[in-house]
Amino acid sequence: MHGNYSFNQYQKTQFTTADPGRLILMMYDGAIQFIEQARVRMNQKDIAGKGLFIGKAQNIVSELTSSLDPKRGGDLATSLETLYLYVNNQLSLANVKNSFDHLENALRIVKELREGWEGIVNKPNPDVSAAREASEAARIGPAL
Length: 144
Prior knowledge:
144 residues; mainly alpha; Four Helix Bundle (Hemerythrin (Met), subunit A); 6 helices
């Protein structure tokens, strides 16, 4: 019991002290993990478990959507919003139709978005304008 509490505290600290770019990466990681868990549950024909994990993934994608600021992020924010809405739609269809194809579509897009975001966050000499545009689109943290 104590070990689980310590791990949860560690995770909470990681989440609350992460820089804005890392926070978004963590959100993508969570969505990927939940979609993969939904896939496992779907394979096991565990309808309730599948729905639980799809719902958790949708909550993360919805949070990413609500963090967008189209006024500051312009076309990038609009494009991200379109992708997030599509991902949530694919997750809904995967849940309702018990469809691996829709689940895989959502997973593929979230992985691609995560890869792109990681490239911005981990770039050795970040392009300040690209980082600023991404940060403004996601309305995360101070402008660079």
